[in-house]
Amino acid sequence: MKATKHFLSILLLTFLFASCTKENVPEINVPLGAYDNGILILNEGNFGTPNASVSYISNDFMTFQNSIFLSVNPTKELGDVAQSMSFDKDKAYIVLNNSNKIEVVNRYTFVSLGTITEKLENPRYSLVLNGKLYVTNAISNAITVYDATTYDYIASIPLNKTAEKIVAANGKLYVMNGAYGYGNRVTVVSPVTNTVLSTIDVEEGINSIEEQNGVVYVLCGNTTKSKLFKINTTTDAITFIESTTLKGALNMDIEANKIYYTAGTSVYVMDLVATSFNETPLFSVTDNSWSTLYGFGVIKDQIYTADASGFTADGVVTVYSSAGVILKTVSVGLGPNSFYANNLK
After folding, report:
1. What is residue 181's predicted lDDT score, i.e. its pLDDT?
2. Which residues contact 175 (CB under 8 A, 6 or more apart)?
3. pTM of the model as a whole
């Protein structure tokens, strides 16, 4: 009996020790590569010249590096006009518009994993949904579909209209039918049947589309007004707010419960549930003609802006706090156009 009690006491102490030890051991965040826990900056490069590049800056701003694709893959050119980038697990898909290709890399190490070229005709934007890569194409006005693992071509979905930025919500694809201040429609596509379900009319000057909490937000701006549309992705019914005072709204990004957008040389912010535009700037940047605010994004309440310097010199990226205070300024590649969080999952 004493031996049994002694054994049970030892067993209990063992479990208590193991439990305490497990709870007290700190979780170790093992880096997945040189470029995790930071921001990737996509630089278009000059049209007609294969000098597109990607820059990296760590979340704490202590590490910064230009041309990371070339650094890791010295025998490969990234390509001509880096238009956009999308992610799936540990992969990044870099869309090269004028090169008619997509470079696939490990998002954390930037080691090249492959190149997609089939059926691409001026590719613009992409996303991965249910193991498939969907790519919009400017010349064919179609979405091309690929296996996200093997990169094999699967199908094309003709839109018969401009195919630009693309988001997914509620099992459907939503594609902007406009660019550069022109266009007033969104096409809804079924990724199950690879067919067009419907089109939604918005305002002339469609320029940004985002998905948040199952709702699709579409920003339009022209010389007379700005409009923000909200698409109920269950019914595809729309509601909107507008301003005839704030004109030409552009460059929308959504972070948490805030919508950030630009107009002219100013950055604005409003609540996700706002019933009217905020017309008071959070801050303004120096006017540098058309290349001012060429790139824009919000990541973890920090606002990233890019001046393309007229594509005659290195672009300049400036990071602001949510209060509009400058946190960091760096020189990047030619034509910085977008920013992507690249954090450990």
Report:
1. 84
2. 136, 143, 159, 163, 164, 165, 166, 186, 187, 189
3. 0.90
